[in-house]
């Protein structure tokens, strides 16, 4: 399977369970690997034969920046849902990280894999 990769997408959102985390937006990094059959696009060189990853990117940024999740897990699931709303995406691997969430750690995060139903 072919893959589209989006690396280190930086969004700012309200996320966390502590009161201080819910007052101001925090930096969150999102990494995606999307399984897509890219053979047709590779031959035709036409966007309509591929997945518009710019549109996916914009939709994820809009959703995340307007969100107020308590858990990184919930944000990751919502990102996967956005990706899988494109029927050409058969599987989405999503990693969401909160830099500096833990003292003495560069970041903490979750990684999930979701597939199209059926």
- Beta-strand proportion: 35-45%
- The CATH class designation is Alpha Beta
Mean model confidence by pLDDT: 95
Helix content range: 25-40%
Total number of beta strands: 5
User: Number of domains in the coordinates?
Assistant: 1
Rg, alpha carbons: 15 Å
Going across the biggest sheet, name each strand in turn. 3-1-2-4-5
The CATH architecture would be: 2-Layer Sandwich
Low-pLDDT stretches are: none
How does the helix and strand content classify structurally? Answer: alpha+beta
Order of helices and strands: EEHHEHEE
The geometry reads as: elongated
Word description of this protein:
With 118 residues, the chain is an alpha+beta fold. The protein has one domain (2-115): GTP Cyclohydrolase I, domain 2 (2-Layer Sandwich), CATH 3.30.1130.10. It has 3 helices and 5 strands; from the N terminus they run ββααβαββ. It has helices at residues 39-44, 53-65, 72-84; strands spanning 2-15, 26-36, 68-69, 91-99, 107-115. The protein has a 5-stranded mixed β-sheet with strand order 3-1-2-4-5. Strand 4 and strand 5 form a beta hairpin. The protein is elongated and about 50 Å long. The two termini are 18 Å apart. The mean pLDDT is 95.
């Amino acid at each position: 399977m072919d893959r589209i990769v989006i690396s280190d997408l930086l969004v700012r959102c309200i996320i966390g369970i502590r009161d201080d985390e819910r007052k101001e937006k925090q930096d969150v990094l999102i990494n995606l690997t999307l399984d897509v059959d890219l053979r047709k696009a590779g031959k035709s060189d036409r966007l309509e034969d591929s997945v518009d990853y710019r549109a996916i990117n914009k939709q994820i940024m809009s959703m995340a920046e307007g969100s107020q999740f308590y858990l990184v897990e919930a944000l990751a699931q919502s990102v996967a849902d956005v990706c899988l709303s494109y029927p050409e995406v058969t599987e989405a691997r999503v990693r969401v990280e909160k830099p500096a969430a833990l003292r003495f750690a560069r970041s903490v995060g979750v990684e999930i894999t979701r597939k199209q139903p059926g």
